[in-house]
Structures are given as C-alpha cells and as structure tokens.
Design a protein that fits this description.
With 491 residues, this protein is an alpha+beta fold. The protein contains 17 helices and 20 strands. It folds into 4 domains: 139 residues, Schlafen, AAA domain (Methyltransferase, Cobalt-precorrin-4 Transmethylase, Domain 2); 62 residues, no CATH class; 189 residues, Heat Shock Protein 90; 87 residues, Arc Repressor Mutant, subunit A. Helix 9 crosses helix 16 and helix 10 packs antiparallel against helix 12. It is elongated.
Length: 491
C-alpha cells in the first residue's frame, strides 16, 4: 500500500473494517479489534494514525516487530493477519495489520476473550453467541453430509436417478464423458462414498425408503384459503430424495398458481406464463434443498401458497457473517452442504455459487413483481414472493389480455398440449421424451411432464412410488375431456 492510498482510507474514517491506533503502545487494544475483524468480515488496523485521522507514523525497530509478533501469539486459533509497512517521512512508518476473514476457523479469541466488530466499535462477544459459533465451527469441520450413513448400501439408492445425474452432467460438461455406469465408481467421483461407506449426502440426493434412513428429507406443501393458516385448501407431506422433492414442489406450484396467456404483436403463438417466473421459484426451492441443515431430524422444506403470497422456508440459519441484506447483492458463497450443492451444480440446477438469491430478485424484477422478501426466524430461512397485483388468486397477470382459450383457462401450455395426445395409453417417461424429440431430461421434466401432472391432465400409474423404474403416465378423465374438446374445436 502506498501513502496516497493510506490518505484516502484515513480520510474516509474508521468503520467496521478500519481502525486507527496512534502507536504500538495500544497493541492490546489493536489485538481486540483484530479479533473483532476476524470474527466478522475482516479488516485492517493502522498503527501510527490517530483516531482523529492524523498520519504520524512511528519508529519500527526489531523490538517493535517482536512486540507485534507477541501480541499475535495470544490468538486462538492462529490469527491469519498479514503485516505491512508504509513509509511516511523521516524514517517513520505506519504499520498495517490486515486481518483476513476466515469463517472456517472462527470464532477467534484474543487473550481468552472473543470480540465482535459493530460499526466502528469493538466489544466482547456475548457468551451465547460464542457458544453457537463454536458449535457451528464443529459442524463445518465434521459436517453432517460427510458422515457415514449407518446401515445404508448402494442398494438403498435410486440407481436410475444416479445415471440421470451422470447423463445430464456429461451434457453440461460438468462430468467427463469417460464416466462409466458403475454405481460405486460414480459415487466415489461425486464424493458420496468414502472408504466404501455411503455418506449422508448420498442419501439426501438419491436415497430410497427415506422415512427409515433420513426422515428429514421431508417436503410440506400447503394451499391456504385467504392470507393466514386458518383453512387448508390443499395439504400434502412427501418424503423422497432431493430431486424427487424438487419435482413434487414444482408440480405443486404449477398446480396452485394461475397460468395466463397473452398475445405478443408480430407472433402467431400465444405466450403462456405462470404468475411468478418458474426459474425464480425453482431457484428458491433448490436453495432450500441445498442449504438446509439436515442434521435437524425434524426439519423440512415448507412451501405455502396464500391468496396474496408464496412462502418457501427451509430448516437452518444463514451462515455466520452473512446477513439478510447481503442476499440481494454480491456475496461470498458459503454452502452449508458443499457435496450436495456440487451435485446440484453438475445437474445444471445451479449456475454460479452465491448467485442464486440475486437471480431470484432479478427474475422477479423483470416480471414486474416487488423484490422477494428474505427472512430468518432463528431456526428457518425463508423467501416470500408477492405479485405486483397483490392477489395470487387472480386469473390473469396484470399485463395479460383476455384472449384465453380453454387450454389456458385449464393451465395447458403449448408444451403440455403436445404431450397429452401421446398419453392416451400408459407410456414411460423415456418414451414420451423420445416421441417429443427431446434430449434433455431435465428440460422435459420442467417444461412438459411436471406442468402436465400439476394440471391434473395426466397421472402416474404407480402414484405411491413416483420414482419407480416401472412408472408410466396416462391421461386422466380431465385430460381426455380436454383432448375431446380440442378435437371438436378443430372440426
């Protein structure tokens, strides 16, 4: 750092990341401040600058350097602090003690006491918060997802979903084409097995019989009448692996939220839209599945639709150092479950770590809705979507025209309309996808299969086992009625 840059920092004054000390005579106070920085976002202490912002400098001798080293030896764990020197004048220098944020090592203590930095003030960290952070540090060093899943073998995992993950990951160029079909080898590549033992992350991602192995792989879905939880219109509870829960969540949202159609000048095709951008809703569900605290056995992912909003909540708290207001801007990625998040990334469901919440905000803004609200209760983190109109149960988006067909009124998009005639007789997902000429299974599920199931136009032949390898899909009475009406209209 040069003197000119120091001048700019001093002119800006002290803050939550900057502190001035007149000389090394105040090293103990400097250590307390560094501890506060290390337990927060990091920061720098400038020795040789007064609190009023006068750059004085001081003599930096071998003794001075030994005193600084002695002060730093009083940290536990070892403090990641870099020492810099800025020449001022006449042999005087300003010492810069740069504390780098280290969330994996926090909380730090100095001379046996933990400190916090709030604004330009340093104070002792409250004991309950310190204990909480110590527990969190232990979790980070031995995360639940990386612990062995007792009694679980590869036979207890959904092999079809594992192979689907590999196919998509290869298409996304996030796994090598040389990846074979050996399940144990794939689990090793994805770091879901260690020393031959299946890990908890594998159960969350691909487990079967989840009530026995992992009851917290739980999804609660509710549609309430009005704006409170007095009356249920729909209430479901589902257990399954993460990808099955994602599909179920999106089907529920497609079913409970209105779809509208609008005509765009210059285009012959009608544009069908869900009330909220599906990608924003999916991103919120994916975030909930990836960043949940799965060590809480009674936890769940909760989705509730009211007349005026949609709420998506997941068990757990924000990572230390991350605030609610940070979620709408660039922030450091701190995934609670790195292995689970990595597999979602390979599936193409996450593009950039740390960008998911910003993507949700951007998509809602582009659709003309208010910014979603991020909230934390102490045991759960949630996101709340509110429409621009203020009413979820309105039949149309504000900008939609009244040029609706029976298909739109029943929630049938162009993609669903293409799928329905192929489902007159029971048919597998693979055959449906093949007849539609679609290569990407994830796109087929999101744009065709899930919306068709959500509208009630088709149904599973084995409804109690949605991930069965024998699963097929067929038209419902509602679907047959819609097809008959379409044929009659075309006559």
């Amino acid at each position: 750092m040069e003197l000119e840059e120091l001048g700019r920092i001093v002119a800006a004054g002290e803050s939550d990341t900057v502190e001035f000390k007149k000389s090394t005579a105040l090293l103990t106070r400097a250590g307390e401040t560094l501890c506060g920085f290390l337990n927060g976002r990091g920061g720098r202490v400038f020795l040789g600058v007064t609190a009023e912002g006068r750059i004085l400098g001081q003599q930096v001798s071998d003794k001075t350097q030994r005193e600084v080293a002695e002060m730093l030896s009083h940290f536990e764990p070892v403090a990641p602090v870099e020492i810099g020197r800025i020449p001022v004048a006449d042999g005087l220098e300003v010492l810069v003690l740069d504390a780098r944020p280290s969330p994996n090592k926090a909380p730090f203590v100095f001379e046996g006491r933990p400190y916090l930095r709030v604004g330009s003030a340093t104070s002792v960290m409250p004991h309950p918060l310190f204990e909480e952070r110590v527990l969190e540090r232990g979790y980070r060093h031995s995360p639940w997802e990386k612990a062995p899943a007792q009694g679980v073998t590869a036979a207890n995992l959904d092999h079809e979903e594992i192979m689907r993950t590999v196919r998509i990951a290869v298409q996304e160029r996030r796994m090598p084409e040389s990846t074979g079909r050996n399940i144990e080898d794939i689990l090793d590549r994805l770091e879901l097995r260690k020393d031959g033992q299946i890990l908890n992350a594998a159960v969350v991602l691909f487990g079967t019989d989840l009530l026995h192995w992992c009851p917290q792989c739980h999804l609660r879905l509710a549609r309430f009448k009005g704006v409170d939880k007095t009356t249920f219109l729909n209430n479901r509870q589902i257990r399954g692996h993460a990808f099955a829960l994602l599909d179920e969540a999106m089907e529920f949202l497609y079913h409970e939220l209105p779809t509208s159609g609008r005509i765009v000048p210059g285009r012959l095709e009608r544009i069908d839209e869900l009330l909220f951008p599906p990608d924003a809703l999916r991103e919120a569900v994916v975030n909930g599945l990836c960043h949940r605290d799965y060590s809480v056995t009674g936890g769940a992912l909760n989705i509730a639709v009211f007349d005026d909003r949609v709420e998506i909540w997941s068990t757990g708290k924000l990572p230390f150092g991350l605030r609610l207001e940070d979620l709408k801007k660039d922030h450091r990625s701190q995934p609670r479950n790195e292995t689970i998040t990595d597999v979602f990334y390979r599936r193409g469901l996450i593009e950039q770590w740390g960008r998911g919440t910003q993507k949700i905000v951007d998509l809602c803004r582009r659709a003309g809705h208010p910014d979603p609200e991020f909230r934390e209760t102490g045991v759960d983190v949630g996101v709340i979507f509110r429409p621009a109109s203020g009413q979820i149960n309105t039949p149309l988006l504000p900008e939609a025209t009244d040029q609706l067909t029976m298909g739109v009124a029943m929630g049938v998009t162009m993609e669903v309309a293409k799928l329905l005639p192929l489902s007159s007789n029971p048919i597998s997902r693979e055959d449906l996808q093949k007849q539609l000429g679609l290569r990407n299974a994830d796109h087929f599920r999101k744009s065709y299969l899930s919306p068709a199931l959500a509208t009630g136009m088709i149904e599973r032949t084995i409804p109690d086992k949605p991930n069965s390898r024998l699963q097929k899909y067929r038209l419902t009475a509602k679907g047959r009625m819609w097809l008959a009406a379409q044929r009659k209209t075309g006559e």
